[in-house]
Design brief:
- The structure is a single chain.
- By secondary structure, the protein is of the alpha/beta class.
- The chain folds into 2 domains: 181 residues, Rossmann fold, CATH 3.40.50; 66 residues, rRNA adenine dimethylase, C-terminal domain (Helicase, Ruva Protein, domain 3, Orthogonal Bundle).
- The strands form 2 sheets. Strands 4-3-2-5-6-9-7 form a 7-stranded mixed beta sheet, sandwiched between helices. The protein has a two-stranded antiparallel sheet with strand order 1-8.
- Helix 2 links the parallel strand 2 and strand 3.
- Helix 1 packs across helix 2, helix 5 runs parallel beside helix 7 and helix 8 packs across helix 11.
- It is elongated.
- The structure holds S-adenosylmethionine (SAM).
- The site of S-adenosylmethionine has 23 residues, from strand 1 and helix 2.
Length: 265
């Protein structure tokens, strides 16, 4: 790696401990039939362990300073490298590159955690997602309704899959050492998670939580559905008319969204 300079703007905190890397790949349940998509190869430590367990690894890396090191390290292996910003490659292109069902495994750059999780959960070829995130984000993902951690990311992750916190990772395991601990979240995609309009559903969830302290009826009223109609729907769902978004279980979110999309047709 020569005189590699770590770039904070790319969320570069690398792993090197072999035991930990094996544990991550094990928790992700990667086997030799699997195609794995990795976001952020870094120095290639996780990529190397993935490569030993998977059929093929497709790894994206934004930092061009890593081209030489990674290209040499993985020359002639089952690792296919793409030196691109994953956020700039559209889903169709990703699906063409990957060429079928895949598992996403990554030590994610913290600044794109939520957009990456939200986006890939909607990909019809995704089997599961196992990603290292800041522990505080992991706790939000697995939160229960009526708690302060329960929010947009919790509902989105549960709409598309079954999230589990599978490993806690101390900050000292990374270089450079970040300010917070991390955790690996595994989300197995639900079989029945294809929604008619998943973008609409996601915006609905985001709007419902837009101002957490406000009643859901105030956050969601539009020119097509009034506050009192929403209050009535909340009562039909067995909730108080002054309910806030954090009180709605996943089931109730889906039911309320159904009413909304029917009214907005
Ligand atoms: N996988 C390595 C490891 O575990 O040691 C590196 C993980 S590091 C937390 C995140 C990596 O993602 C960095 O190498 C960074 O350059 C890369 N990265 C950041 N933003 C990216 C993007 N938009 N597209 C592709 N890679 C990105």
């Amino acid at each position: 790696m020569g005189n590699f300079e770590f770039k904070k703007k790319f969320g570069q905190n690398f792993l090197s401990d072999k035991n930990l890397l094996e544990k991550i790949v094990n928790k992700a349940e990667v086997s030799e039939e699997d195609i794995v998509l990795e976001i952020g190869a870094g120095a290639g430590a996780l990529t190397e362990v993935l490569s030993a367990h998977a059929k093929k690894v497709i790894s994206f890396e934004i930092d061009k300073d890593l081209i030489e090191h990674l290209s040499e390290k993985f020359d002639g292996t089952n690792v296919e490298l793409h030196f691109d910003d994953i956020m700039k490659i559209d889903d169709e292109k990703i699906n063409n590159i990957v060429g079928g069902r895949f598992k996403l495994v990554a030590n994610l750059p913290y600044y794109v955690t939520s957009p990456i999780i939200t986006r890939f959960l909607q990909n019809e070829n995704l089997v599961s997602l196992s990603v290292m995130v800041q522990e505080e984000v992991a706790d939000r993902i697995i939160a229960q309704p009526q708690t302060k951690d329960y929010g947009v990311l919790t509902v989105i992750c549960n709409l598309f899959g079954c999230p589990e916190k599978v490993l806690r990772v101390d900050r000292k395991m990374f270089y450079p050492v970040p300010n917070v601990d991390s955790a690996v979240i595994k989300i197995d995609k639900r079989e029945n998670s294809v929604y008619e309009n998943s973008d609409g559903l996601i915006s609905f969830v985001k709007n419902a939580f837009a101002m957490r302290r406000k009643k859901i009826s105030s956050n969601l009223e539009t020119n097509k559905i009034s506050k009192s109609e929403i209050e009535q729907e909340l009562k039909n769902l067995g909730l108080s008319e002054s309910a806030r978004a954090e009180e709605l279980s996943l089931d109730k979110f889906i039911k309320l969204y159904q009413v909304f999309s029917d009214k907005n047709k």
